[in-house]
Amino acid sequence: MVGSASSLNSHVLVLNKMWMAIRVVDARRAFSFLFRNMAEAIRVDDGSYTGHDFESWADLSVERDRYDALDQEHYDWVSTVRIDIAVPKIIRLLGYDRLPKQDVKLNRRNIYARDANMCQYCGDKFPTSELSLDHVLPRSQGGGSSWTNLVCCCVGCNSRKGGRTPKQAHMKLIRPPVKPARNPVVHLRLGSDKYASWRAFLDNAYWSVELK
Description:
Blueprint: H1 5-8, E1 11-15, E2 21-26, H2 27-35, E3 39-45, E4 48-52, H3 54-62, H4 64-67, E5 77-79, E6 84-86, E7 90-93, H5 108-114, E8 131-135, E9 150-154, H6 155-161, H7 184-189, H8 199-202, E10 210-211
Parallel strand pairs: 1-7, 2-10
Antiparallel strand pairs: 1-2, 3-4, 3-7, 5-6, 8-9
């Protein structure tokens, strides 16, 4: 299977056998599950959910021009030797009924997502390349790396704050940093119409979804 890097890296929500969300994978891995008959692609149509094996999903992709079986604008597409095939938004594992114990990982990507790329001192939004992480209580004063002590910070505010606390630098946080209840990257994606079909499976707080 070939295709653009962006399409093959598209995000696919994975459900277990009991229709509970367990993780998010890229299109490469999703197609691997489908091709090996370990999962089915889930088609969402006006609130109904239909499962398809790899062959029937490929047939839907082929029929899109004749029957509008799949809305081309709402899917990413990859090319095989024979056909163009839609990347499913959701797949369901056929032989896995457990919910793995997962925790939201403390990493740069998740902190940027939690803070929505907004400097927590000046309130402006920046590209990731123009942001850094700031220790609210500086490491030089005993502050560690934790959800409640790390925030997004722009270069200007980082330079102004230096090795001081916000109070010492006469700066104020936009909001106190907290640990998110679930993966903040997934939470951000739910705001996009592209991932609207995920919402029904992610609106319960106890479902913890980790990007892998």
